[in-house]
Amino acid sequence: MSDLVTKFGRNSFGFRSDIPLTDEQLFRIAPSIFAAGKHESRSDRYTYIPTGEVLAGLRREGFQPFMVAQSKSRVEGKSEFTKHMLRLRPDGQIQNQEAFEIILINSHDGTSSYQMLGGVLRFVCQNGCVAGDIIEDIRVPHRGNITENVIDAAYKIVDDFGAVEESIDNMKGTRLALPEARAFAEAALSLKYVCQEDAPIAPEQLLTARRY
After folding, report:
1. Is 105 in contact with 56 (CB distance < 8 Å)?
2. What are residue 121's phi and psi, to 5 degrees?
3. What is the rounded CA–CA span in Å between residue 183 and residue 199?
4. Largest separation between any pair of C-alpha atoms in the chain
5. Which superkingdom does the taxonomy of this entry point to (predicted)?
6. In the chain, what is the straight-line distance between the N-terminal and C-terminal CA atoms, in Å?
7. Is the CB of residue 203 less than 8 Å from the CB of residue 182?
8. Is the distance from CB of 118 to CB of 130 less than 8 angstroms?
């Protein structure tokens, strides 16, 4: 299980849907997604990263937002710039128990770096916990000429999903008999521990799925 850099708990608004969310629905919960620039408190060195542009690009690649969250702010006028989170899945896979997913976190007021995770994930809760296998984890501070690179990184994650899907299918198609599986586990342990007695777990424990 992976923790996101930014957590969304009681001090936030959130909404999850079984169908793709429209811009109107996203704006109602997280207007900062569509901010046209950075908050006035930021200096010239702060680089604005347009969440809306990244979202538009991912939609063109077939990914649709199904969950949105945004932190609350007590500062007047700052709610249009504060940290926000989007979770996106391929169109038609939103209700799947497990699917390729992209998680995007950003802000325009300095409360969060830009973060994008991609992987085979499952919905757990709204407090920033992710269950599954993370394939990509991109974290970018708001500094320098990075906007184009951030958008390109989103496309890279989408491209990587194709290779991962093929690898997953190949692994799922491989079946080992129990003696073969035990031999595989023993060989894996031997890569780190010269003596099997020194290993903190038994080979059989390596064969037990521990995905949360």
Report:
1. no
2. -125, 165
3. 15
4. 65
5. Bacteria
6. 6
7. yes
8. no
Reported as a single tens digit per residue, the pLDDT across 177-210 is 888 888 888 888 888 887 777 788 888 887 776 6
Cα–Cα distance for residue pair 186/173, rounded to 1 Å:
22
Look-up: residue for tokens 């007695």? 197
Tokens, residue 168: 């997953």
Residues 6+ away with beta carbon under 8 Å from 68: 14, 15, 21, 25, 26, 29, 30, 33, 84, 85, 86, 87
**Burial, 75: exposed, middle or buried (Cβ in 10 Å; 0-12, 13-18, 19+)?**
exposed
Six-digit token string for 49 = 């990263």
What is the tens place of the pLDDT at every residue in 13-48? 889 898 999 999 999 999 999 999 999 999 999 999
Find where tokens 């680089």 sit. Answer: 47
Q: In the beta sheet, which residues pair with residue 15?
A: 68
